[in-house]
């Protein structure tokens, strides 16, 4: 079977499995929207200075939740599902067939990216309708490139971290502990305006802040030019390469013993 | 198809300081049902997973369908079918969908309908995996193992945890595979399963093969001495033959020539008016052989 045919087939089956677990599917979509609504209720009357002229915080939250959606759909989702499939012996069973390793991973990753894309569309539409945010026009290419680089990075990191998680029971704990603290210090849940300098420096090491910043810039109605932030894209690409290397090093088909 | 499906010489595998497989030799012919019989922890699963390509060996020569399973090429994997000891299936897909998914990985799969009827899941085709009973999931496991129309099928403890009737259904299914000309490599810790299904059996204990052969002659069963057992009524005299008293009050005669011995015994009994209570004549069963072999090795 050719590469494209095999990948499309894997994606189709991943997709069937995804939608047939309605609770999981519902919350994948409900979660980011819930955050968007809650943060707007809590901080919506504040103003945000990160965009230059003072704007309503709502304009900050839509792109921030767009970034959050991609992180959930790619990093969290892949880390969890790959660990569970490995722990339940599903991967070991696939290993006994002629399906190549890339075939499984391509299906898994492409499906995550499709879900992420759908989520981004929903969140942006929600922001447009309820919070009156501007949809990027001149910066649209920058928005799409940033999303793509971010999705690739967080997919690679998702596969990589699944290789470090010992078993399915530990997956939610490890995934949340690795991502939640960073979400709070990376301009996703709250704008990091009055934080200590060392914290800002620390958060700059990780890809989340750069991803959020790239998306914010592309979304900012006052951005001049095309909206590409080279530093952010480069930092993400480095993490993407690191994630890939780690994924190749630590990915296994068999449940971990003990 | 090669004459010899599996050829193993001096296979060794250790986990840390624990030796799981301690130098075994095996040979399985094409079209044969071969059973690797042994107690839990004897090294059955380690052996079968090395043959499947799931594990690496420490030493020894392993040839499966003319290939080294350790290389795990797609060509090799498209010619074997694997039914692992524990199940792991996509819970939200239906029976038909799971089989279709796996059929798609192989160059020459069996037709879907044929697979479904071979494993007897016709009634459950549109049921999701998570709604199947344990026995039905196990049959779906076998269905997936068959999906690619393999020349060689590995079954690792296919009926562990089955009730007796489900076991007989599974046995009939495995006999069906044999009639399709497939080579089957089976591991089990049930003696009756090995006896019912296998053309040849090897008994593995503590990582070593302690006996090998057709179930009827295993462990020298064919040439083994026959045992004659009976009770002597109280106060009776004893026959002029070598007897061994048993703890339950019965006596045994072990003889290589049961026809003559029985004639001598019953002539004596009739002449002396002695009735031989509970008279039985038996060969050692596969179970006797298995228990004596495994007991000796474990102690």
Explain this structure to me?
- The complex is a heterodimer of chains A (258) and B (299).
- Chain A is mostly helical and 258 residues long.
- Chain A has one domain (3-250).
- Chain A has 10 helices and 2 strands; from the N terminus they run ααββαααααααα.
- Chain B has 299 residues and is α/β, with parallel strands linked by helices.
- Chain B folds into 2 domains: 4-220, P-loop containing nucleotide triphosphate hydrolases (Rossmann fold, 3-Layer(aba) Sandwich); 226-282, no CATH class.
- Chain B has 9 helices and 13 strands.
- The longest helix of chain B is centred in the middle third of the chain and has 16 residues, at 164-179.
- The mean pLDDT of chain B is 88.
- The A-B interface holds A 1, 6, 9, 13, 16-17, 20-21, 85, 88-93, 95-100, 254 and B 52-54, 74-75, 77-78, 80, 82, 84, 86-93, 97, 101-102, 104-107, 128, 144, 148.
